[in-house]
Amino acid sequence: MDDALVTRWLLAFFGACVLGPALGALVGRWAGFSVGVAIGTLVIGLTGLTGAGVAVWEGWKNSADSMAVPGRLIEFEGDRPVVEFTAPDGATHRITGLGGSQPRAGPGDEVPVRLPQGDAARARIDDLQNASGLAIALGLFGLLPTLFGVFFTAQAVSERRGEVPPRPPTPAQRRRRTQLTVVANVVFLGGFAVSFLGEDLTRSLGAGFMIVGGGCLLHFVAQSLPPAAMPFHTRFIFVVVGVGFAAFGLVARLLGG
Fold first, then answer.
1. Which CATH architecture has domain 66-125?
2. pLDDT at 156
3. Which of 16, 101, 214, 256 could, after both became Cys, cross-link 202 (CB 3.0–4.6 A)?
């Protein structure tokens, strides 16, 4: 990953973390608390998601204009792998990967390297963490504030319109909601059980978190069956929690190897 790109978007994200709350506080003074929080979280979240999209695009372009070469793990500097490779011109180079990458490799093991055409200085270890670490980080930390922004936007709209009491469900509708809620609870509890199964704790936690997230999303569906049991912004809490668990679980699974 291009160091300049990483620096630029990390600065942009941290800037959004300062600007977003400040802008939200100003707007919230005359438009209300919910609007202010919605603006603040959306500034942070959308900046993160935009940076993740740019990182994915730049990574794809760099991969298309690069070649795979074999590398060899020399040592670890702390938890950062040091890899040596030979360029097509015969010159030998060393690169240092991100901390925590190549957790299962040892000195002497072969490690894939991605070499941009004619620019050995931009070579990187060709694994998920080094290739997509910026996109994963910005995507993860951009997704959750964006979801909170949607929640507070929906809450602000609801406050403007006023609460509309839901019409009572028929016995058949109530039964369907109850059945789906039971299924969601079983999935939810199953996710916690899976989290502690298996020899690899990281992968087990990843799988368990994704299942827990799925259970939360099923709860959202159950409460959204017509007639909806509660206002949209209240139901959307299940989406925020569910997507959060699923996203962290997916990242744990991917980085766990």
1. Beta Barrel (2.40)
2. 92
3. 256
Please name the residues in contact with 45: beta carbons below 8 A apart, sequence gap of 6 or more: 142, 143, 144, 145, 146, 147, 148, 149
Residue 165 CB contacts under 8 Å (≥ 6 apart), including other chains: none
The percent of the chain in helix, strand and coil, each rounded to the nearest 5, is 65, 15, 20
- Residue 131's pLDDT band (cuts 50, 70, 90): confident
Q: For position 118, what pLDDT does the model report? A: 66
Distance CA 28, CA 21 (A): 10
How many residues in the chain? 257
What the block records as the tokens of 51 is 């940076």
Percent with pLDDT over 90 in the chain: 56
First to last CA, the chain: 20
Kindly give, in sequence order, each residue whose CB lies less than 8 Å from that of residue 104, ignoring residues fewer than 6 positions away.
257
Cα-only R_g, the chain: 23
Q: Is pLDDT of 2 > 70? A: no
Q: Put residue 108 in one of left, alpha, beta given phi > 0 → left and psi -120 to 50 → alpha.
A: left
What's 179-219 look like in SS3? HHHHHHHHHHHHHHHHCCCCCCHHHHHHHHHHHHHHHHHHH
Structure tokens at 84: 């040596």
- The helix (run of H) or strand (run of E) holding residue 44 is helix 33-64
Distance CA 158, CA 95 (A): 54
